[in-house]
Amino acid sequence: MKRTPSLPLAPAAKPSWLNNLSVLGPGLLFAATSVGTSHLVQSTRAGALYGLALLLIVIVANAVKYPAFRFASDYLPATGVTLLEAYRRQGRWVLCVYFFITLSSLLFAVSALALMSAGLIKVVFALTLPTHWMALGLIAVTSAILVIGHYNTLERVTKVLVVVMMACTLFATATVIPEISWSEGVQWLPTELDVVGLMFVAALIGWMPVPLDASVWQSLWAKAKAENSEHPPTLAQSRFDFNLSFGGTLLLAVCFMLLGAGLMHDKGIELQSGSAAFSAQLISLYQAVFGSSAGPVIGIAALAIIYSSLLAIMDAFPRALSSLHRRWLDIPEDQDDHKLTESDPFYIGTLVLMAAGAALTYQFFMTSLTSLIDMAATIAFITAPLIAYLNHRAIRSDFVPADCRPGKLMTLYSRFSIAVMISFACSYLYLRFWVS
């Protein structure tokens, strides 16, 4: 039997354009998370190393993940509960699997983003402090901002950062497009990939636009926004928020690849693996377009978007683990009166855990920024089909009203996407461990 939604659902009337804009929030947090490492680092590296040979792979990676992310965005306005409640209903084994996926992401994603942010700070402000110590300090400062500022501050800051960086990147890309050797022919698919190249492609797909376990974060952010709003967003408004943000992340992924291809590919530029050195290269892309005097401004803009990713992820993990703990106790979400706040001991404890995990990562696992990112992204690549399947089951269950479930075409699209992700993961494992 379907449970009564725990959050009040707004009327189903078609919202106006202005009403749609007013509910932007969870989708933009999704965009901020996406445009961080996967775009600034991975897409730029892809363009620099392979030109446009990985462009179709980037587009396909986004396309096959769309249904799973869309279903996560739809679930809360359709049912009044988050995606983790849907996972609880599917069995404790699902919660257990999600916990281990989250734990692997928590250890490496936060570490990589903090390291990249610290590298940008060193370059922009010409500091000489050790990067890993700066990264740990940045995690501490971010924790304080989240505890003091709460969700509303997170959302407001993110909206500004995403818009500023998108404007800079679109202008830079439009200027760089003529630099690409279109007349000599463009290679649209890689012809030869060694083990290193294969690992990079897997990492690129894994975090493009963002790991699929982030679909739970969408749901939790949507709940936080609903709890802080007088009128919770409708299904149509939530879908508008998500579609606009998802389309923007795809556009920016293509832009960063074009920047790498136009300014670095076939020009004898060796990509740096250290966070500060790579950050300097990243800023040089924009300096080549806007001039050397724009370097500090562009550096601050790049830092802003990377830091917005760090801010969003550090907020997402405590929310996910807290809700996961409550669901593990087999407490139905619509009967749970516990409301997580940023001053909750569990929230603060998770922030401390992330800082400790980052310290251990820098001490024992880090060889370079890019290898750290590739490790986290490859884990996300292998586990993506399972998360997509769980989201597919959730949105088609009897707990979701019939008029909120996906139609036949979207259901078929989702099944096809899951099959493609499974084939990607199996092919990678075969080539990585049996052929190589």
Give a description of the structure.
- With 436 residues, the protein is mainly α.
- 74% of the residues lie in helices and 0% in strands.
SSE layout and pairing:
Layout: H1 17-22, H2 26-50, H3 55-79, H4 83-90, H5 92-125, H6 131-176, H7 195-206, H8 214-227, H9 235-263, H10 275-290, H11 295-328, H12 345-364, H13 369-395, H14 408-435
* Inertia-based shape: globular
DSSP summary: helix tally: 14
CATH class: Mainly Alpha
* Number of structural domains: 1
Structural class: mainly alpha
Radius of gyration: 21 Å
Query: What's the total number of strands?
Result: 0
**How big a fraction of the residues is strand?**
under 5%
CATH topology: Amino acid/polyamine transporter I
**N-to-C span:** 51 Å
- Average pLDDT over all residues: 79
Give the H and E element order.
HHHHHHHHHHHHHH
Question: What's the quaternary structure here?
Answer: single chain
Largest sheet: number of strands, sense, barrel closure: none
CATH superfamily: Amino acid/polyamine transporter I
Helix content: over 70%
Regions with little confidence, pLDDT below 50 for 5+ residues: 1-15
CATH architecture: Up-down Bundle
Protein name: Mn2+ and Fe2+ transporters of the NRAMP family
Transmembrane segments: 21-41, 47-64, 93-121, 133-153, 160-177, 197-221, 242-264, 294-317, 346-365, 371-391, 412-431
Organism: Marinobacterium stanieri
Keywords: Membrane, Transmembrane, Transmembrane helix
